[in-house]
Write a structure and sequence with these properties.
2 copies of one chain form a homodimer.
Chain A: E1 6-10, H1 14-26, E2 30-34, H2 37-42, E3 48-54, H3 62-71, E4 80-85, H4 89-98, E5 102-106, H5 110-129, E6 137-140, E7 145-148, E8 151-154, H6 157-168, E9 173-174, H7 176-183, H8 193-205, E10 213-216, E11 220-223
Parallel strand pairs in A: 1-2, 1-3, 3-4, 4-5
Antiparallel strand pairs in A: 6-7, 7-8, 9-11, 10-11
Helix pairs in contact in A: 3-4, 6-8
Chain A binds a DNA duplex (30 and 30 nucleotides) through residues 156-158, 190-191, 193-194, 196-201, 203, 215, 217-218.
DNA sequence: GTCCAATTTTACAAGAGTGAAACAATATTG
DNA sequence: CAATATTGTTTCACTCTTGTAAAATTGGAC
C-alpha cells in the first residue's frame, strides 16, 4: 500500500497470529505481534500504523485496550480493526462507540481482512489531509441535538442513533442491517425501506449538509465530512 | 480560551496528572497539580479558575473536598469537574447535589474533558455577565426555593431536586430514568409518568418561564436558559 | 434512448409519547 | 387527631414520531 505501514496483530491464539503474520507480510506490511493486551500496550506504538485486535483476550479485553488507546492522544489516531465473534453485537456496538474503525467477524477470510485494512488506511489518509477544516456539523450527544453551523436542530430518538453511528466513523459504509441493529430496539421487526425513510428525514434536518450522508447503492450509507 | 485561566488538577495517579497537565497546558491553561485533597486544600486557591477533581483519592475523598470548597464563600464560586468511575452513580449524584459543575467518567477522553472544561467556564462567564440584571430564574439552593424575577416561590422536595439536576447542566437532556434516579429515594418504585407530573407541577411554578423546561420526545427533558 | 433495479420522496394511518386535570394515597404539620 | 400539603396514579385529549405503501426519481447497463 504505501512505504511499509507496520501493523500490530493482537490475538491470544498463536495459530491465527501466524496466519495473519504471513498474509500481512506478503501484503507488504511490516508486522508486529502480541498475544495479550498487556504485551501490546508495553510496546512502543509510535511506529504502528494499524492495529488488528481480537476482542476476546485473556486478561485485559480488546475492548478495554482499544478504549485506553483511543483516550490517549498519542495513540488515538492509530486505526483499529476489531476481530469479534459472529454474534457479538454488543462488542461491535461498544467498539464503534469508542471509536474503533472497523470490525471483522470470526471466522473471517484473511483476504477480506486485508481489504478492510487497506480501506481503513486509505480513509485515515483522507482525513489527515483535511483535518484543519472544522466543519459545520456537530452532534451534541448530551443535548440529543444537531448543531448545524451552530444552530440547534432537535433530533428524534431514531434520528439521533442513526447519525451517532454514521458520524462516529466518517467514510465507513453501514448496511441497512447494521443501522437497524444499532438504532432500532431489539426484537422490533421492520422492513429495510424503513431505514431509507429515516435517512431522508435526517437529510432534511442536515439542511445544507444533506449531501454529507452519502448513499452507496447496494451497500448502505456513510457519512462524509463537509 | 481567555487570558490564562489556571486549572488545578487533583488526582493521586501521577500518570493521569501528567497527561492532563500536558493537555491543559497545550490548551492554553495555566496548570497546578496536587496528588491529594489535603495537598490541594493547602494551596492558595485565589488564582484558580477551575478544578478537575478525582473523586477517588487516598485520604480525604474528592467528594468531601468539594463539599468543603462549596461551603466556603471564598471558594464556592470556583467551578469543579468530577472525575468518577464509569458506574459510580452515587458519586455523580452526590456531586451534583453539592454543586459540582460537571463530571466525566473514567476512562475518559482528554478531548472531552477539555470541551467540558471550556463549557463550564463559558457558563460561568455568562452567569457573571448578567448577574446585575438579576433577571429570570435563580435556584436558591440554601432556601430550597426558586427566585422568579426576584420573587420567591417555594419548591417541594421533589420539585427542587428535579430542577436542581436540570439547571445544573443547561442544554443537557435527562431521561426519565435519570431523573428518577436523582430525585427519588433509592428503592422507591414509581412509574415513568410520575416524572411527567412532576415536570408539569414545576412548570406551573416557573410561571412565565415554563418554556425553559423543554420536552424532548423520546429522550426526556432539558433546561434551556431564558 | 430504453429498461431495470435501487433509492428517494410523499402521504397517511397506527402507535407511542406527552400534558393537564382529577382523584387517591401518603406524609407532614399543628 | 384533624387539617393540610405533598406525591403517585389514572384518564383523556392531543401531538409527535414512525412504519408502510405507493409514486417519483435516479443511475447505470445495454
Amino acid at each position: 500500500m504505501d512505504n511499509t505501514t507496520t501493523v500490530l496483530l493482537v490475538d491470544d491464539e498463536q495459530d491465527i497470529l501466524d496466519i495473519l503474520r504471513f498474509n500481512f507480510a506478503s501484503g507488504g506490511f511490516g508486522v508486529e505481534t502480541a498475544t495479550s493486551a498487556e504485551q501490546a500496550l508495553a510496546k512502543d506504538l509510535s511506529g504502528i500504523g494499524l492495529i488488528i485486535l481480537d476482542v476476546m483476550l485473556g486478561g485485559m479485553s480488546g475492548l478495554k485496550m482499544a478504549m485506553l488507546l483511543k483516550d490517549n492522544p498519542a495513540t488515538a489516531d492509530i486505526p483499529i480493526i476489531f476481530l469479534t465473534a459472529k454474534n457479538a453485537r454488543e462488542d461491535i456496538i461498544d467498539g464503534l462507540r469508542i471509536g474503533v474503525d472497523d470490525y471483522v467477524t470470526k471466522p473471517f477470510s484473511v483476504q477480506e481482512l486485508l481489504l478492510r485494512a487497506q480501506a481503513v488506511l486509505r480513509r485515515g489518509h483522507r482525513q489527515a489531509e483535511r483535518s484543519p477544516g472544522q466543519g459545520g456539523l456537530v452532534l451534541d450527544k448530551r443535548g440529543k441535538q444537531l448543531l448545524v453551523d451552530g444552530k440547534a436542530v432537535p433530533l428524534t430518538r431514531t434520528e439521533f442513533l442513526i447519525l451517532e453511528l454514521l458520524m462516529a466513523h466518517p467514510g465507513a459504509v453501514y448496511s441497512r442491517d447494521q443501522l437497524l441493529d444499532y438504532a432500532w430496539p431489539d426484537g422490533v421487526i421492520v422492513i429495510g425501506r424503513t431505514v431509507d425513510v429515516g435517512i431522508t428525514r435526517l437529510r432534511k434536518k442536515l439542511a445544507p449538509y444533506a449531501h454529507c450522508i452519502v448513499t452507496r447503492p447496494g451497500h448502505g450509507y456513510c457519512y462524509e465530512e463537509a
